[in-house]
Amino acid sequence: MDEAFTVFGFVSLSLSPRSSSFRPVRHTAAIVALNIGSSLAEISSELQQDLNVTNRQLATSQKQKAVQSKIKQLEKKVKENRTRKTFISKWSEDIFNR
């Protein structure tokens, strides 16, 4: 969770100069915000693709009555990816709703 607070703090600090009266500072803050937003969108897309693949693997394993350890491992991976996706979504909302 420390990483979440660190990223949140970084995003907050990098977006705070957007209201500056000095134009170059506002421009730099906008560029930083766009880069962060783009990176979060890419990460979110990759997580969604991984989540889709894992869900398909889990469904196939459940249909084939695979070994329970494999099913539990896939369920754990799905849960972790959903948690990561939730964090990324919150960070993205924070950037775009400021």
Q: What would you say this structure looks like, in words?
A:
It is a single chain. This protein is mainly alpha-helical and 98 residues long. It has one domain (2-96). The chain is built from 3 helices and no strands. The chain has helices at residues 2-15, 23-63, 68-96. The protein starts with a helix and ends with a helix.
Q: Which geometry do the CA atoms define?
A: rod-shaped
N-to-C order of helices and strands? HHH
* Overall pLDDT metric: 78
**In percent, how helical is the residue content?**
over 70%
Q: What portion of the residues fall into strands of 2 or more residues?
A: under 5%
Radius of gyration in whole Å, from Cα?
18 Å
Structure classification = mainly alpha
Distance between the ends: 23 Å
Instruction: Provide the number of structural domains.
Output: 1
What's the arrangement of secondary structure elements?
Layout: H1 2-15, H2 23-63, H3 68-96
Helix pairs in contact: 2-3
Question: Could you list some keywords that capture this structure?
Answer:
98 residues, mainly alpha
Summary?
This protein has 3 helices and no strands.
